[in-house]
């Protein structure tokens, strides 16, 4: 009898298992593939590792501005992939070590959920006080004829490519699509992104998304408001925003239209779990409709981010332990690791207005920062936008674009979590000279 | 008649002038040299610009691990210096633009303070409601025989060097000494640092300082507890910690033992201003003993950091405007831009104990972060240390070492400013995968 059985060892499951084990709980963690889930093995980590290679490549190309002369700069995809594989292996081993250290039992296999307290793997039925469903998601393949060809990739195939494509069409201008577009275009691959909506990254502040697309446009061609109809061999055929038929020929096509939640084939329906295509229904404490059964991460459909999954796991654990807690989805930051990076936390200007706020905002280019200028030059893309409630002066959102902003946005999460007013944000001292200071300067520009 | 006359256009003076002008105040800003003061012209900005070149150089050298092949990597000091000069020029022009935009009058010349309301430049006496003394500091040259030779540099000469020295002795293991040691040693220059105290960076948490020195030791040789007696030509003669006489021969010697406050020759004494060698005496609102006379920045001796000076200027301005405000020195972050970087905010473990706290702490290597590992490898130096009060659970200090930490420490400043408990810090969500997550993980490790 376990205290907690967790199905799925992604960033929801393994973080919860580690924290629960640390508290002395008897934990069983079931994983059908590798520890770390999609995030570590086919998502966040490998993409960021490869994007780091792209950043090194571009840095080497521009290093002479800073007095660093290099010879010819070339890219060895095989070596970059090896580095990525090493990183994955090291991190997998790290999770395995943490599981052992915190006395979490790990079982490899496909789990079937039998209802409250019971999970089957192979012939064995495991019993636990609490069951946590953290089964994640897979790439969504839309029913486009020709999508089943070998040169039509998802993130999984793109992350194990053995040669650089000559040209690439990315279907979908969301985070995954944009990160791959940025990666491949860094090395001169001709990249076209086809997006159905009228702007990339649908959840972004519209003004920022436009600036972001402009920055990416130097190396990537965008086709907005377009619908892909057919992939005929290497021809991607689509209808453009005016209803006209068009096509782009590409060596490789990357399918990045979204994620499908893992809800089927694991006994959820048979057990009477309340769920639909948008996810397993959970309350603010991650409880499902079944007693002592919790769901966390992508499979809840609430937020498809690795760190959201981890936080949901922490809330589920606190709930199991009788402590009050809840996920505040409005203070969860996000980041895109493209070149340039983008990040945000809190409301966009559109959301703030929709929610009835009397909005005040300010935007400043990152070039007002001495450090940004020193490290990136005057023409580098970079922008910070701050959104606040004009009546209460309370900060509502921070949105950033520019080198390194993925590592700064957690600061905005703290300001939002502690519900600071702009007046109070201005009293926080940032070290000089840092790029982060632009966030502070933007606070001073809000009116 | 001005509302505010500010003497000194460093980060104390020009930031205050800008904010005051923005509020509609009639401001006169007097500067004897260049807008931006030491920080922009001979300090923060040029050192960070050159250290960015060093980072590019080292990145290019290690890029092949990530699949980026470059030919021979060489360093062109002249080109790096040109880039640095361009950055300074752009930023000076930026300040001039901001002064104009906010209707701040700028006068070039040496100011004499004549007492409350009066400042003279050349033959002109300017009158103002409030006078702000922001006169800064210069390098301290200790009375060591031979310190007046041409190859004995301060930061100013090091920042305009036209050729790389073959070898360098740095006298002083504080921030300035360490940043230059890191810069020159990055390119293979033989560097020795001689420090009188038994550890480098005296204000740092002792445990962190030791780890930092260990990380730097790969390229820099340290001589702690040693006192330099004489610079005989190129021989730097010193007494070691056992009292033995030793010497190191060096092409260039860098004097980096500290800063001397600019207190003399400007009429301070004649005007009856209360000051001594440790600085102008000010209260929490930056008021001096003379009515409507304020002092901010280095010259107060309270904190010799650019961003402290800016914050002091903001507090002085709020005081002038009748708003309550004060600088909380315990939440001002600091950063060292060496390779690796270091940063901190709040109390060190030693300070926390001295102040009577029942201390709880935790430290984690940065390699627990997937992104840090992906971008730096398993052997890269990186560490986060968190200090909290065991009784109240309130966070007291955060100390970091590792690539990029200078851009993360402002987050710790927010947590300290808002007086978060460790329990509350754990509820803040950091994006995954980021290096910053190590801060969060360390919060979970505190016990």
Provide the fold topology:
The structure is a homodimer of 447-residue chains.
Chain A: E1 2-7, H1 13-22, E2 27-31, H2 37-42, H3 44-62, E3 68-69, E4 74-75, H4 77-101, E5 104-108, E6 111-115, E7 118-121, E8 124-133, E9 137-139, E10 152-153, H5 155-158, E11 167-171, H6 175-186, E12 190-194, H7 206-216, E13 220-223, E14 227-232, E15 235-239, E16 245-249, E17 252-255, E18 259-261, E19 275-276, E20 279-280, E21 293-295, H8 306-320, E22 334-336, E23 342-346, H9 349-354, E24 359-365, H10 370-376, E25 383-389, E26 395-401, H11 409-417, H12 422-425, H13 437-445
Parallel strand pairs in A: 1-2, 1-8, 2-5, 8-21, 10-17, 11-12, 11-17, 12-13
Antiparallel strand pairs in A: 6-7, 7-8, 9-18, 14-15, 15-16, 19-20, 22-23, 23-26, 24-25, 25-26
Helix pairs in contact in A: 1-4, 1-8, 3-4, 3-6
Could you explain the architecture of this structure?
- The structure is a homodimer of 447-residue chains.
- Chain A has 447 residues and is an alpha/beta fold.
- The first copy, chain A, has three domains: 2-138 and 260-327, FAD/NAD(P)-binding domain; 152-257, FAD/NAD(P)-binding domain (3-Layer(bba) Sandwich); 331-445, Enolase-like, domain 1 (2-Layer Sandwich).
- In chain A, 31% of the residues lie in helices and 26% in strands.
- The first copy, chain A, has 13 helices and 26 strands.
- Chain A has helices at 13-22, 37-42, 44-62, 77-101, 155-158, 175-186, 206-216, 306-320, 349-354, 370-376, 409-417, 422-425, 437-445, and strands at 2-7, 27-31, 68-69, 74-75, 104-108, 111-115, 118-121, 124-133, 137-139, 152-153, 167-171, 190-194, 220-223, 227-232, 235-239, 245-249, 252-255, 259-261, 275-276, 279-280, 293-295, 334-336, 342-346, 359-365, 383-389, 395-401.
- In chain A, strands 1, 2, 5, 6, 7, 8 and 21 form a seven-stranded mixed β-sheet that branches. Chain A has a five-stranded parallel β-sheet with strand order 10-17-11-12-13. A five-stranded antiparallel β-sheet of chain A has the order 22-23-26-25-24, sandwiched between helices.
- In chain A, a hairpin with a 2-residue loop joins β7 (118-121) and β8.
- In chain A, α1 runs parallel beside α4, α1 (13-22) packs parallel to α8 (306-320) and α3 crosses α4 (77-101).
- The first copy, chain A, is globular.
- The termini of chain A are far apart.
- At the A-B interface, α3, β3, β4, α4 and α8 of A face α3, β3, β4, α4 and α8 of B.
């Amino acid at each position: 009898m376990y205290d907690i059985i967790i199905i799925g060892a992604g960033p929801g499951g393994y973080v919860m298992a580690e924290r629960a084990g640390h508290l002395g709980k008897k934990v069983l963690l079931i994983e059908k593939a590798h520890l770390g889930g999609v995030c570590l093995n086919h998502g966040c980590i490998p993409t960021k590792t490869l994007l780091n290679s792209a950043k090194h490549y571009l840095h080497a190309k521009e290093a002479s501005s800073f007095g660093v002369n290099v010879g010819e700069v070339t890219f060895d995809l095989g070596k970059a992939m090896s580095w990525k594989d090493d990183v994955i292996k090291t991190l997998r081993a790290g999770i395995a070590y943490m599981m052992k250290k915190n006395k979490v039992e790990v079982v490899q296999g496909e789990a079937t959920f039998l209802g409250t307290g019971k999970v089957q793997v192979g012939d064995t039925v495991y019993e636990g006080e609490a069951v946590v469903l953290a089964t994640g998601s897979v790439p969504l393949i839309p029913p486009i004829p020709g999508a089943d060809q070998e040169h039509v990739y998802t993130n999984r195939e793109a992350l194990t490519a053995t040669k650089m494509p000559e040209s690439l069409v990315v279907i979908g201008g969301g985070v995954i699509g944009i990160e791959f577009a940025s990666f491949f275009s860094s090395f001169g691959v001709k990249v076209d992104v086809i997006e159905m909506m009228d702007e990339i990254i649908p959840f972004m502040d519209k003004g920022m998304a436009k600036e972001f697309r402009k920055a990416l446009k130097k190396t990537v061609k965008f086709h907005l408001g377009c619908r892909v109809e057919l992939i005929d061999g290497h021809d991607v055929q689509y209808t453009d925003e005016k209803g006209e038929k068009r096509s782009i020929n590409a060596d490789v096509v990357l399918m990045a239209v979204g994620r499908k939640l893992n809800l089927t084939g694991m006994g959820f329906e048979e057990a009477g779990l309340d769920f639909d295509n948008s996810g397993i229904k959970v309350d603010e404490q991650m409880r499902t409709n079944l007693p002592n059964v919790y769901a966390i991460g992508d499979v809840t459909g609430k937020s498809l981010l690795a760190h959201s999954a981890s936080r949901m796991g922490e809330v589920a654990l606190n709930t199991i332990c009788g402590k009050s807690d809840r996920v505040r989805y409005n203070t969860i930051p996000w980041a895109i690791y493209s070149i340039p990076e983008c990040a945000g936390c809190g409301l966009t200007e559109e959301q703030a207005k929709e929610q009835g706020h009397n909005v005040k905002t300010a935007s400043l280019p990152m070039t007002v920062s001495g450090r940004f200028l020193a490290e990136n030059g005057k023409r580098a893309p970079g922008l910070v936008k701050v959104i606040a409630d004009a009546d209460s002066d309370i900060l509502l959102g921070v949105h950033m674009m520019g080198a390194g902003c993925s590592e700064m946005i957690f600061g905005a999460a703290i300001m939002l979590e502690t519900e600071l007013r702009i007046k109070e944000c201005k009293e926080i001292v940032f070290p000089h000279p840092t790029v982060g200071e632009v966030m502070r300067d933007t606070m001073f520009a809000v009116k």
